[in-house]
Amino acid sequence: MADYNKEEVWDEFKEKQNMTHNELEKWLETEESKNAGREMDNGETVGHASGRSILKIKEKNKSDLTEANWDKINETVGYYHQNLHESQKPSSDVENSAWYYALKNWGHDALK
Question: Segment Disordered: which positions (predicted)?
Answer without folding.
Answer: 32-55
